[in-house]
Write a structure and sequence with these properties.
three-stranded antiparallel sheet
């Protein structure tokens, strides 16, 4: 189980939603067997998870377990070409032409890219995900990197710039992790969202974040009320019925006795 502390996967500034990963949710993590599917790969067949295309993965930044893990959406996989210092992105070939761009290169070229990759109309804000490959390749050169990896982004990490929403992916100005995510850094995939219960853990350890949605707090209080009140209501009702001469468990007892006989 993974308690979500950040609001980076939310689809609203003020409200939490069922089926969306919100601050204070608990996530059931499914072990990763090498089958992560990205936004680009899922778009063509309509496979959605937690409100959008692509798997929501949990990964260790730079592979370091002492850093807080991140749960973000897998957006696009880059394959590094050591021979000419570029990236291939074969999955782009499955997208409609109007869904992506590659800078000044021919429209359908997904190989030997060294400027940018753009994916349009992404997420609940219809943002543009603009991956700056030039900057990334410079970082590779400076640090002697040669690995493939996945570009990840939080659904809520968008910024309004010059009249358009831009996706702030993890290797952009947020710099959560400057490198594309290696497969061996991935801890698993988010499979089930349990609303609100993570708030308990957050409150005990660090206190509730300021951006915790009010309906998440009220939802947790309502859940507690049900859990506390229901046993009392059941007990009172059971005793009232017993005093009136009717055993609520009677039909079940007779059924079990009949089977034994």
């Amino acid at each position: 189980m993974f308690a979500v502390k950040s609001d980076s996967m939310q689809h609203s500034d003020t409200e939490s939603m069922f089926g969306i990963i919100d601050a204070g949710d608990m996530l059931v993590i499914r072990g990763w067997g090498g089958g992560v599917r990205t936004y680009v790969e899922c778009f063509s067949d309509g496979d959605r998870s937690f409100g959008d295309y692509g798997d929501a993965i949990i990964y260790d930044r730079y592979g370091y377990s002492f850093l807080t893990p991140v749960v973000h959406r897998a957006m696009v996989r880059l394959e590094y070409n050591e021979s000419d210092d570029t990236f291939d992105v074969p999955s782009l070939s499955e997208l409609p032409p109007e869904k992506w761009g590659n800078g000044d290169l021919p429209d359908d070229q997904w190989w030997s890219l060294d400027e940018m990759v753009e994916i349009y109309d992404v997420g609940y804000r219809a943002a543009t995900l603009r991956v700056n490959l030039t900057t990334l390749l410079s970082y590779y050169d400076t640090n002697g990197l040669i690995h493939d990896g996945i570009i990840t982004m939080g659904d809520h990490n968008v910024e309004y710039v010059d009249g358009e929403w831009l996706g702030m992916y993890d290797r952009s100005s947020f710099a959560l992790c400057r490198e594309p995510i290696r497969d061996e850094w991935i801890l698993g995939e988010a499979s089930i969202e349990v609303p609100w219960l993570g708030l308990i853990r957050l409150y005990v350890h660090d206190g509730l974040p300021d951006y915790t949605a009010e309906n998440s707090k009220s939802g947790l209080m309502a859940l507690f009320a049900v859990l506390i009140v229901w046993p009392v209501v059941f007990d009172v009702t059971y005793n009232v019925l017993r005093r009136k001469g009717w055993d609520p468990w009677g039909p079940l007892k007779r059924l079990f006795d009949k089977k034994k006989g």
